[in-house]
Each structure stands twice: as structure tokens, then as C-alpha cells.
Design a protein that fits this description.
The protein is α/β, with parallel strands linked by helices. Helices cover about 30% and strands about 15% of the residues. The protein contains 15 helices and 19 strands.
């Protein structure tokens, strides 16, 4: 008898006579020390094959005093000595019935035989417990009552788009608890969202270890990873989430349990929201992005509009910035010319932007003249969203505020340069794309490699007003 692996004792000697062995009908003998770990167990000259499960956890001893041969994956099985409920003599058809314990082998005895034909199962309790635990685990993982973590992108526009993925995810898992893992600069976008149960906001200053510890403590069952970065997949692997789903880019497929093949050209050949929705399954249709606002936030936005003595129907929003770089920015002089034409038609312009874009927005506001409101750096993302929900028309570059306006219900006119509107255009109906498709575009460059920026400069204010 010899141990062949964790939790298994196998007696697989070649059948035949062994010198010095005794034949006793109905009894089993142990040669080679009489302990679980060496020797052969034979009965009536034939090998008895025994597969038994040793009791106890790894490193402990069971009730027989022998070291346990119990692997980590059997932790949940009941603590019992290994048993043999039935052994079969191949020559005579004799069956020996259990339980047979280590002590039987030590003392070279076997349970008394019972009537032939009586059948029992080997290690029935252990087998049922093991299969039951796995069944319940699989049932839990397949049920809708799961804890799902969604890692959203850090960019404002991509984070807004991910709200469409959240809607599709909630439809697929209606009973699931959904938590969002987001960078602190975009985390507020998901506040007041009825589809979201919790938000984990993080910053790079916290360090990977602290983020992983926070995730691990919550016991998530499944994670969807929308960003393509290696670090996003790594933190979920370190957190021990059992199901990790994302694109297998940058060799990170090894960190995922389910990965979709990534090709940059294929990924950019369809809208980014469609790419996100594919993580839920090939037949899952993407949903329109949406930002949920409270009544209080909407009320404050209405007061701000009333303060500038204009009705919502008279307002036009501008989004002239682009954190990505100048290859996505329509020239300043064109914004000024467009603003003047709108002002002459009785419209009031409100310019949106981040604090880093304040100087750019101020120059445009001064150029347009009296009545133009420069809001760059003054509003949070949610305050911007509340105002955009009241503005019927919004003109913008391909930037984060473009997606924010579309998700809040504004009709968007989007000016595209180095990027593709197929991939990152505003989602939904009623929007208008202005795209001068030069031979070199879309190049996805931050700075024009030729220096002429023709993809943007050839678009005139009249082209925008024509819509």
C-alpha cells in the first residue's frame, strides 16, 4: 500500500501471490509495516484497490493518530477517518463491507462479510459533502444574487460611457449588488445612481496594496474590468476575485479568468460602448449612458440660469477644451466667430471646462463679448451635468464634457479631428457629427505630425451653424 497523492491511498500492486502471505477467506492482510504509507493490502491472493479519504486538515493528525493526507481543496469535508464500505475480491466475487478504518489495516482484520449482492457506496458522506459544497458554490456563482465589482475608466468621457454598461449589466443581473471602483475625479458621476449599491473611490497616492485590501475585504464574486491597463487586472487578481472578466490586452490575459481577444484596430472599429457591452456576452445590447441627478441639484442649476437672466431655450453650451491635446481642439478663433454669430441671433453662450482650461475659455468668452458666461473651473462634474440637462444645444470638441452633455439629454454637435466618431462619438439619436476626413485621419495623435491640423481648420463656423 502506498500513498500516491494528497488525500488518496492506492493499492495497485499486480495481482498474484506474494511470498509469505497468508490466505484467509474474508480477511485482508497488510505487508510492509501495516500503516498507511507502505506495503500492500491483499485478500485471498488478489489485490484490493482502495481509494480512501484521510481525515483532518493538512499538517494535523486524524483520530487514528496518522498524519492527514488531506489537500487544501478538501478543507470543507467532514472530519472522519477514511472508510472502505465495500471491497471486491475479483476471483471469488467475495465482497467485504465496511466501514474499514486504519485500525483494520493495522491489525490485519476486515469487517465480517455480509450477504452477497448488498451494495453500499465508498465514502458516501465525504463524497456527498464534497459534491454538495461544489454544487452550492456553482449555484451561487450562477445565480443573480452576486456581488459584482465594475472597474470604470479614469477619463471623464469613458467613465460617462460606462454608465451604459452598468445599465446593461443590471439588466443581465437584476438581483446583483453592483459596486463601482472609480478614480476619485470621476467617482461622483455615479452618485444617486439607483443601479449602483456602493462606490469605491481611489487615488494613485493610496497605493496598490491599500486598494487591493479594500476590495478583498468586500468579498466580490465577479469583476468586470473596462480599462485596458495591466494594473487594473492585477489589482483584481491580487484581491482574489474568482471571476475576472476583461480584454486580454498587454499580456494581462493571464490575470483574467475570462478574457476577450483584444485587437486595437477591431476595438476602434465600433463604438467603445459596444466594446464594453461585449464583456457581458455576444448578444448583449449596449444601453444609452445616463447620469442620474437629484432634485436639489436640478434646482440649483435652474437658479444659476435664472441669475444670468436667460431662459434655457436661449442657451447654447460650448466645450472648447480637450485634455487629450491640440489635435482634438477646434481653433480658438473659430469658437469666437461661432459665438458672435449665435449672440447676434439672440443666444447666450455658456462655456464649460476644467480649471486647467480656464485661460482658454476666458479668451473665448472675452472674444465673444458681453453676455457670455465662462464657467471653466467653477463647477463640479455633477453641477455641470445639472446645467447641461437644462441646455438644449451643446457644441463641443471630442472631449469628456461631450459625453456628459449627451448623457444628460442635450443635443450635441461634436467636432472631430484626430479621433474617430465611430469609436468615441456621442451615443444616441439626435446628435450631429462634423468630421473632415483627411487622408491622414483618424491618426489618434495628440499633436498633428504634419503641423497643419487640416482635419480641424477646414471646419468653419458656418459648417456648425448649418445643422
Amino acid at each position: 500500500m502506498r500513498a500516491v497523492g494528497p488525500g488518496t491511498i492506492d493499492l495497485r500492486a499486480v495481482p498474484g501471490k506474494t511470498a509469505g502471505h497468508q490466505r484467509h477467506r474474508g480477511h485482508a492482510h497488510c505487508r510492509g509495516g501495516g500503516h498507511a504509507g507502505g506495503g500492500h493490502l491483499r485478500a485471498d491472493g488478489q489485490t484490493i484497490r482502495l481509494c480512501a479519504l484521510a481525515a483532518g486538515k493538512q499538517g494535523h493528525r486524524n483520530r487514528t493518530g496518522l498524519p492527514a493526507l488531506r489537500p487544501a481543496w478538501l478543507k470543507e469535508m467532514p472530519q472522519r477517518p477514511f472508510q472502505l464500505h465495500e471491497t471486491y475480491h475479483s476471483r471469488t466475487g467475495q465482497r467485504f463491507y465496511g466501514p474499514m478504518t486504519i485500525n483494520h489495516i493495522r491489525h490485519k482484520t476486515c469487517p465480517e462479510p455480509r450477504r452477497r449482492g448488498h451494495k453500499t457506496l465508498v465514502t458516501l458522506c465525504e463524497l456527498c459533502a464534497f459534491c454538495g459544497n461544489n454544487y452550492l458554490h456553482e449555484k451561487h456563482m450562477k445565480s443573480d444574487n452576486q456581488k459584482i465589482l465594475i472597474r470604470v475608466p479614469n477619463w471623464i468621457g469613458d467613465a460617462v460611457i460606462s454608465t451604459g454598461f452598468i445599465e446593461a449589466c443590471k439588466k443581465k443581473h437584476p438581483e446583483a449588488s453592483i459596486t463601482i471602483l472609480a478614480h476619485q475625479r470621476v467617482a461622483e458621476l455615479f452618485e444617486a445612481d439607483p443601479r449602483v449599491n456602493d462606490i469605491i473611490a481611489f487615488s494613485k497616492e493610496e497605493g496598490l496594496r491599500r486598494i487591493v485590501r479594500s476590495i478583498k475585504s468586500r468579498g466580490f464574486d465577479r469583476a468586470y474590468i473596462l480599462p485596458l491597463s495591466f494594473s487594473s487586472a492585477l489589482m483584481f487578481r491580487l484581491a482574489g476575485i474568482k471571476q475576472r472578466i476583461g480584454y486580454g490586452s498587454e499580456l494581462r490575459g493571464l490575470l483574467l479568468t475570462e478574457s476577450l481577444k483584444y485587437s486595437q484596430n477591431d476595438f476602434r472599429s465600433r463604438h467603445i460602448l459596444q466594446g464594453y457591452a461585449a464583456l457581458l456576452g455576444p448578444d448583449v445590447a449596449p444601453k444609452a449612458p445616463k447620469i442620474y441627478l437629484t432634485d436639489d441639484e436640478k434646482g440649483k442649476a435652474e437658479k444659476r440660469i435664472f441669475a444670468i437672466k436667460a431662459g434655457p431655450e436661449d442657451l447654447v453650451g460650448f466645450g472648447p477644451g480637450a485634455t487629450y491635446g491640440p489635435a482634438k481642439m477646434w481653433p480658438v478663433e473659430n469658437w469666437i466667430r461661432l459665438g458672435r454669430k449665435l449672440s447676434e441671433g439672440g443666444k447666450r453662450v455658456m462655456i464649460f471646462g476644467s480649471a486647467s482650461e480656464n485661460e482658454l475659455c476666458r479668451d473665448i468668452a472675452v472674444g465673444i463679448g458681453r453676455g457670455t458666461a465662462n464657467l471653466a473651473g467653477e463647477l463640479s462634474l455633477r453641477e455641470s451635468a445639472a446645467l447641461l440637462s437644462l441646455i438644449p444645444s451643446f457644441v463641443t470638441n471630442d472631449t469628456g464634457v461631450m459625453h456628459l452633455a449627451a448623457a444628460c439629454g442635450a443635443r450635441v454637435t461634436a467636432i472631430f479631428g484626430s479621433t474617430s466618431p465611430v469609436w468615441t462619438g456621442p451615443w444616441g439619436e439626435g446628435h450631429r457629427i462634423i468630421y473632415n476626413q483627411e487622408p491622414c485621419s483618424p491618426c489618434y495623435k495628440r499633436i498633428c505630425r504634419y503641423g497643419h491640423y487640416n482635419c480641424l481648420k477646414k471646419i468653419t463656423p458656418d459648417d456648425v451653424l448649418a445643422g
